[in-house]
Structures are given as structure tokens and as C-alpha cells.
Design a protein that fits this description.
10 strands; 11 helices; globular
């Protein structure tokens, strides 16, 4: 199994990441090579450290001698690429890179909550966590590649909140990337059992493989039972494995970014590194 990369070489950066970043087309770009700035972002994402604690000298003269950026320079690029959607483009491009390796006969949906220590956009109190949280719902294929995701959702909502709209957007995005999902199973736990979600799946020719949530029904269902394949449902473990890979990036476990765009961009980078794990390992 390939490990999830926490840094990239200049060659990997130029091939897979730089083409999708919002950078200066002419004139001044940065005294420090962009791939080094990107690796400092990955360091922060991996360790969960504060921006001010990045491994760069705090002395301006020493930074100039070593050609190191200041933490403010790294943060400036982070905000710029986050606001421009550049890091989302990196993730979407990574899906195209691994297109031949995708197992789209099974898709798995699940949620991941993060405690938001400083509050911010799309943050609300969740009783189960006893804290303010935000949530994101990635969709992974049968091999654990992250192929779609919702945005950041406030933690006071249940997992099925606006699920119809989220699935519509996810399925349309998958199709726009040239991925064929017709006939695929969508594995999700009973928290996602809703009539609207099942209808969206059927409209896109996706088979919802979701155990029935008994709390949604007072009386036993009459007529034909809903489709549920227990054997296929066992494949849902890949989403748990992908979440374990995401947990490697400590900046995603506890949210300190107040802006949705920044916290979402951090997920997009992690998604891209998960998707490119084998490709980066082969060139390492």
C-alpha cells in the first residue's frame, strides 16, 4: 500500500499541481519557488501547526540568505489559491489522472465532523460532539479514491440535510469529468435513508444501497421491499479507510480556519494527495 504523501518534488508539483494554480502569468511571482511554498502548506496540513510555527526562520536576514519565505507569504498564497478555487481544480484534475484505476461500480458516502475551536462560517453546536462542529460528506469509489464531495455543512444538521441537492451536484460533477456511474451502487448508512435521496439516485441510474431507517416509518412498509444488497454493503469499509487517510492531516481534525473556502481547500488538497498516492510513490 502506498503511503499518503506529505510533500512533493518539484517535478511532481510542476506536472500535477502548478498547472491548476492561480499564479502570475507575467512579471513577479515569488522569490521562493512555488513548490517549496506548497510543501510548507502540506507541512501545516500534516502537522496541524499554527501558521506562525512553520519551519522557516523568523529572522528576515536569515530567510533572505536561505531563500526562505515568511509564514505570511505562505499564508498569502494559501488564501489566494483557496479563494480562487485553485486547490479544488488540483483535486478534480487528480481524478482524471487516476481515471483508469477507478472502481465506479461501488460508491460510498459518509460524513466527517470536525470540531471548530474558533467558530467561523458553517459552524454550529452539535450535541453528540458537545462542541461546535462542521461536517463534510465525501464520496469514494471502490478503491478509496475521493471522486466527489459536498461543501462544508454546519454541524447542527443531520447527515441527510439537503442530501438531495448534494447528490445532484455530486452526480453532475462526476458526469462532467467523464465518469460513468450508471448502474453503480451507492453505499451509505441508514442516516442517509430518505425518499428524496433515493429518487435522485434512480434519476441518475445509481442504485441506492442504503439500509432502511426504521425511525422514518411508524408502520411496516407494504409491498415490495427496498433494494439492499448486504454483500455489496460490506464494501463500504473503503470509506472508513479513506477517512483514516484523511485523519493523517491533523489540520482537518480540529478546524481553526474561520473561512469556509480555506477549510474546504484543505480537504481538496488531502483528497488530491489520496488520489495521487500511487502515482507519487511510483516516481518517488
Amino acid at each position: 500500500m502506498s503511503t499518503i504523501p506529505t510533500s512533493v518534488t518539484e517535478e511532481q508539483f510542476n506536472a500535477h499541481i502548478r498547472p491548476h494554480l492561480n499564479v502570475a502569468k507575467r512579471g513577479y511571482e515569488s522569490e521562493t519557488p512555488l513548490h517549496e511554498i506548497f510543501n510548507l502548506m502540506l507541512h501545516r496540513l500534516h502537522t496541524g501547526c499554527q501558521w506562525t510555527e512553520l519551519p522557516v526562520s523568523k529572522d528576515a536576514q536569515k530567510r533572505q540568505e536561505r531563500n526562505e519565505p515568511s509564514w505570511q507569504t505562505v499564508y498569502h498564497h494559501w488564501r489566494r489559491w483557496s479563494d480562487a478555487g485553485s486547490l479544488e481544480k488540483v483535486w478534480q484534475a487528480s481524478i482524471g489522472r487516476v481515471k483508469e484505476a477507478l472502481a465506479l461500480d461501488q460508491l460510498s458516502l459518509d460524513g466527517s465532523h470536525a470540531i471548530a475551536k474558533k467558530g467561523g462560517e458553517a459552524v454550529a453546536y452539535q450535541a453528540r460532539k458537545k462542541a461546535k462542529t462542521s461536517n463534510i460528506l465525501p464520496i469514494v469509489d471502490g478503491n478509496g479514491y475521493v471522486v466527489a464531495s459536498t461543501g462544508i455543512v454546519a454541524g447542527n444538521h443531520n447527515d441527510a440535510f439537503q442530501l438531495k441537492d448534494h447528490l445532484q451536484t455530486a452526480f453532475k460533477t462526476l458526469k462532467s469529468l467523464g465518469l460513468v456511474i450508471a448502474g453503480a451502487f451507492l453505499n451509505a448508512d441508514s442516516a442517509f435513508d430518505s425518499r428524496e435521496a433515493r429518487k435522485v439516485c434512480f434519476n441518475h441510474k445509481v442504485r441506492p444501497n442504503i439500509p432502511e431507517n426504521k425511525r422514518n416509518r411508524k408502520l411496516a412498509k407494504r409491498g415490495r421491499k427496498r433494494l439492499f444488497n448486504a454483500q455489496v454493503y460490506k464494501g463500504r469499509f473503503v470509506s472508513e479507510r479513506s477517512f483514516a487517510w484523511l485523519d493523517k492531516f491533523r489540520a482537518l481534525l480540529i478546524r481553526f480556519d474561520r473561512k469556509v473556502a480555506c477549510f474546504l481547500a484543505a480537504h481538496h488538497i488531502a483528497f488530491a494527495l489520496i488520489n495521487l498516492r500511487h502515482l507519487f510513490a511510483a516516481k518517488g
